[in-house]
DNA sequence: TTTATTGTAATCGTTCCGGTTACAATGTCA
DNA sequence: TGACATTGTAACCGGAACGATTACAATAAA
């Protein structure tokens, strides 16, 4: 069970836009050929990134441009923007038996720990910005 | 996209066994009625817990008993035993375009951060034992 | 031998993905 | 204005992962 690749697709997309917006017209076809997915997938991703205020898109003429500073967009912001996880990361079996002492209390015993674990993961995502990634990328290029 | 409820089912199962193994015969039907899932789901879960060395199961006569001290089983151990996540928690779009500077380097830029985030979550799971949960449960009862 | 239970295969319906087709709407440019 | 490239979006597909469920042979105890 894995978290959807929408996150890595979105990061890839944003890195392309922030790196090349002044040199190329970043159409969904262009981005799709770098990410290697269907252009419609990129358009869907861009819609989410636009809704989050990270990019602007030009209908008709084509092309995406940044709408927010890369240093002010964290991995967590992107993860949230593309709906990687809705609410809890962990599924819980529904309706444990309230007539059993364990069934009646399993939620109150477990929920906190699972939430803490999820938060630890999300906090790590908050500690990295798109700007950080762009700089790491530039060192490689 | 969520992590399978096998984790919470397994924890619930182990809490039942550790709490009641000296008072009741913990058959898959008994456990299933507390967890409120199909008994076959419990049998499958117990098989994984047995393979991990956490319980012993009596075929024929019926019933599960603990095979390892609850203080020596962490949530992470259970999470691993029931195969909640295979390898990376995050899916990655496969085959980014190697002819693009971003596509060529996206993995080396992102992988480390995603791995760090996953590890932070798993470390939290390592910090909680079944014994901790059992004690919290006893306070509630 | 009867009975309860485990172990396990097989099948089903659901949900979520990403892939893909299709096409109206939009904006640019000749 | 008309041709063209592109976006926005709906629709549908196939595959994968789950948990539910049925079925039944194997096992062990009474």
Give a verbal description of the structure.
The structure is a homodimer of 141-residue chains. With 141 residues, chain A is mainly alpha-helical. Chain A contains six helices and two strands, in the order αααββααα. Chain A has a two-stranded antiparallel sheet with strand order 1-2. The longest helix of chain A is centred in the C-terminal third of the chain and has 26 residues, at 101-126. At the A-B interface, α1, α2, α5 and α6 of A face α1, α2, α5 and α6 of B. Chain A binds a DNA duplex (30 and 30 nucleotides) through α3.
Features:
homodimer, about 5% strand, mainly alpha, DNA-binding, elongated, Arc Repressor Mutant, subunit A, two-stranded antiparallel ribbon, about 140 residues
Topology:
The structure is a homodimer of 141-residue chains.
Chain A lengths: L5 H15 L7 H8 L3 H13 L3 E3 L6 E3 L8 H7 L19 H26 L3 H11 L1
Antiparallel strand pairs in A: 1-2
Helix pairs in contact in A: 1-3, 2-3, 4-5
Chain A binds a DNA duplex (30 and 30 nucleotides) through helix 3.
In short:
Chain A has 6 helices and 2 strands, in the order αααββααα. Chain A is mainly α.
How many whole angstroms does the radius of gyration of chain A measure? 19 Å
Helix content of chain A: 55-70%
Counting copies of identical and different chains, the oligomeric state is: homodimer
Average pLDDT of chain A, rounded to a whole number, is 96
- CATH topology term of the domain at 6-86 and 129-140 in chain A: Arc Repressor Mutant, subunit A
Main sheet of chain A?
2 strands, antiparallel
Structural class, from secondary structure content of chain A? Answer: mainly alpha
